[in-house]
Amino acid sequence: MRSGAKVAVVGGVFVLAAGGIGYGAYSVLGSDGGGDGGKVASRNAAPEVKTGPPSPEEITGTSKSFFDAWVAGDAASAALLTNNEAGAEPVLASYGEAAHIGKVKITPGPAVGTKVPYTVKATVSYGGKSKPLSYASELTVVRGLTTGKALVDWEPAVVHPQLTEGATLKTGESSTAAIEAVDRNGTVLTKEKYPSLGPILDTLRQKYGATSGGSPGIETWIEPAEDGQPDINLLTLAKGKPGKVQTTLDAGAQAAAEQAVKKFSQASVVAVRPSTGAIRAVANNPATEFNVAMQGQQAPGSTLKIVTAALLLEKGLVTANGATECPKDVMYQGTSFRNLDYFSLPDGSTFTQSFAKSCNTAFIKLIDDVKDDSALAKEARDVFGIGLDWKTGVVSTDGSVPEEVGGVAAAQYIGQGTVQMNALNMASITATAMTGTFQQPVIVPKSLDNRELARASRSLSPSVVQQLKTMMRATAAWGTGAKSMATVGGDKGAKTGSAEVDGQETSNSWFTGFSNDLAAAAVVQTGGHGGDAAGPVVAEVLRAGG
Predict the structure, then answer these.
(1) What is the DSSP string of 33-61?
(2) Which string of DSSP letters, residue by residue, matches 380-446?
(3) Distances in whole angstroms, Cα of residue 387 to Cα of each of 392, 398, 402, 445, 493
(4) DSSP per-residue codes, 167-192
(5) Residues 69, 74, 76, CA angle at the centre, nearest 5°?
(6) What is the pTM of this model?
(7) What is the mean pLDDT of the chain?
């Protein structure tokens, strides 16, 4: 928690400039202003009972009246113009006075249906310091269910786009010093240059700011409703002395990751150093407060065959060069499984060929021979560290392979069913396959706070490691990952995945690979085949090194 005052409604002189929803620019001094007829709506106004969607005139009039009341500092009247008076009034009343926001200019844009976008430009003044604040938001006008009035559909984001239910907008002296996060070579990392690091840097500040040797500054921020979530800094009026926090990131790899994910509307990537578990890059597009790359939970498709292959190799059911059947489809306990486009491999094909070509049926056919429905879950946990309590230094999830039976268990063998992973988990699985021993990923050194890192109960044998690497090298050389990995140098390997999602026409694209002592994994939502979308993302990060 930081000290500081809750943001209250704006007082002073305000200017509301119209953009294109049918009314001209005007100035408001005090509480003058206009709804329909030029007056702020009152509690005694008789509701007009209407039905159906609000008309363009109603959208114009309601949004104008709402802006009038908000700008005038009349939180009660503004709240009365919403469909949740009780929820809206305290938030509107907490907007400006205590936060010292003044000289506010609101510019509405043209209405799009029932939505009215607008920009806010203001000045925050506190402790003798002042700085401009600007942002864009939007509101929606709806028909009141009981009154029939056209009303603003209330949500806290009307006040600020990052404000959520129960969160509080504040300005004051921070109780936690700002930090200067640096990469492994001392390069300063900022959210302006590396947008994906925003939530990571916020968390590092919350966890390590007090012990980093810095001093607090004056800021405007959003304090989340949930305890343990980092504050969202909106504006720094006066910098304190930042404390330095060392990370394991590599600025070059991070820059490459940021660039790579921007090529897709929804994509995430993580790079890890297998020998140490040091996280070298984390990137998401869009870059939001939710770090999908480290917190997401999705089926990873055939990239999980790395774990399944390790299980089968350890059980002695296959060898990299041994023959394995790969029919076009197979039935297991009432559930049908097939290969992409019903492809099959000729008799005598090796397990490496099935792995490199991502043959689903080769893996499904061996399930009964394992003779243990919980074997895959145990392999993931005991060898690859999945499901253990990872302490990376920031918020992250550590993957899940639940114990299942029947067709659901079979689906897990090919990364479907109830398996849940993110890019960090899959990069770590690849890293473990390379070295044979799980190194829990970290984004800040253990020495920073002496936290206890997760440890897997056993390692893979050198023979199994060598065979896994052989199969992943084949995938990168002539298998499903060949096109993506063609531009990657060094000792390299890969595994592709296409994860089907219920209700989603196109599968998610997954890809994981390594080059020398760097492993990376990526997921692109609705990207299709693993090599088509996620593959180039991984390749770009691997080429950057780190």
Answers:
(1) --STTSS---TTPPPP---SSPPHHHHHH
(2) HHHTT-TTS----SS-----B-----HHHHHHHHTT-TT-BB-HHHHHHHHHHHHHSS----BSS-G
(3) 14, 5, 9, 21, 25
(4) -EEEEEE-SS--EEEE-TTS-B--TT
(5) 105
(6) 0.76
(7) 90
Has residue 61 got a pLDDT over 70? yes
**Phi, psi dihedrals of residue 236, rounded to the nearest 5°:** -110, 110
Q: Is the pLDDT of residue 20 over 50?
A: no
User: Contact 100/124 with Cβ under 8 angstroms?
Assistant: yes
CA separation for the pair 516, 493 (Å, rounded): 9
* Count of residues making up the chain: 546
Nearest to 209 by CA among 217, 383, 360: 217
Task: Count the Cβ atoms, other than its own, within 10 Å of residue 532.
Answer: 16
304: amino acid identity, one letter: L
Place of tokens 């928690």: 1
What tokens were used for 35? 């709804």
Residue 29: strand pairing partners: 13
DSSP string, 515-544: ETTEEEEEEETT--STTTTHHHHHHHHHHH
> Average pLDDT, stretch 526-536?
96
Q: What span, in angstroms and rounded, lies between the C-alpha atoms of 387 and 399?
A: 5
Q: Would you state the pLDDT for residue 44?
A: 55
Rounded-to-integer distance, Cα 273 and Cα 439, Å: 9
